[in-house]
Amino acid sequence: MSVFNSQARDQSQLILALSKGRIFEDTLPLLEEAGITVTENPETSRKLILATNDPNVRVIIVRATDVPTYVQHGAADFGVAGKDVLLEHGGEGLYQPIDLNIAACRMSVAVKNGFDYATAVRQGARLRVATKFVQTAREHFAAKGVHVDLIKLYGSMELAPLVGLSDAIVDVVSTGNTLRANDLVEVEEIMQISSRLIVNQAALKLKRERLQPILAAFERASKMKK
Ligand code: ADP
Ligand code: PRP
Ligand code: MG
Fold first, then answer.
1. Would the CB of 55 count as within 6 Å of ligand 2?
2. Which one of 28, 30, 100, 138 is separated from 20 by 20 to 30 angstroms, measured CA to CA?
3. Where is the ATP phosphoribosyltransferase catalytic domain (predicted)?
4. pLDDT by residue (tens digit) across 5-52?
5. Quick check: is 180 in a domain?
């Protein structure tokens, strides 16, 4: 088979796409419920394909925003991704059966302490908004009838209002510590966020027998977290 054939992958394997950090860590107990133990640690290993105790199940480590892409194209059969990431991706080719209730946070608008957001909005000011989540931000402000110039960033959004790059940010907030540490205040909650199991639509049909017990275990374990 040609090395250039991107479809060249062992279809007897089930491949789960995860991102390092909180998604990987919060998914481990769900995998345990399905009897799957990841036998390598992505924090200490440079390997991107991790073995499990089941020779037919492997975990691949990708950036959080890339998880839906791998699953959409069938390079991974299933994955775990935040609702924030899924809304930006659009969800094409993905079946989203289960809210796993992990990596819980909220998507919010925040401004520098002292910036009168309510008055700016009421007066119809044009706001500069920095965010990684441009689709969600665009929809949110369009629904409110607020005109915005969106500035796409890839991280450290909290910095933007401090150095005059933007008037506001749209970012995920959990404890609020990062906002407080940077003298920002949350002025609007856009939505609650948690991570979802996503499954490639073709894999769901072709590998249903092997996927189903794992999905059922994830569902059981995530209900216990509610
Ligand atoms: P990234 O490297 O893209 O920032 P993260 O591991 O930080 O990846 O985030 C993965 C997902 O976890 C996000 O898509 C979001 O749904 C959720 N998340 C992000 N930040 C937090 C947080 N501070 N607390 C809880 N969940 C979070
Ligand atoms: C996320 C997010 C916020 C922070 C919010 O960053 O981008 O900065 O968490 O959490 P808090 O309200 O509890 O402070 P993360 O920790 O994922 O760091 P990152 O910049 O590597 O994404
Ligand atoms: Mg992060």
1. no
2. 138
3. 63-218
4. 556 788 889 999 999 999 999 999 999 999 999 999 999 999 999 999
5. yes
- pTM for the whole structure: 0.95
Q: How far is the CA of 112 from the centre of ligand 2 (A)?
A: 17
Let me know whether 87 and 48 are in one domain.
yes
**Does the beta carbon of 172 sit less than 6 angstroms from any atom of ligand 2?**
yes
Residue 140: C-alpha distances to residues 2, 74, 183 (Å): 46, 31, 24
Domain harbouring 216, CATH code: 3.40.190.10
Residues 6+ apart with CB under 8 A from 55: none
- Quote the CA–CA distance of 211 and 216 in Å, as a whole number: 9
- If asked whether residues 135 and 72 sit together in one domain, one would say no
CA 177 to ligand 2: nearest atom:
14
Shared-domain flag, residues 26 and 91: yes
The first and second tokens of residue 15, run together, are 């491949």
Write out pLDDT tens, residues 193-218: 999 999 999 999 999 999 999 999 99
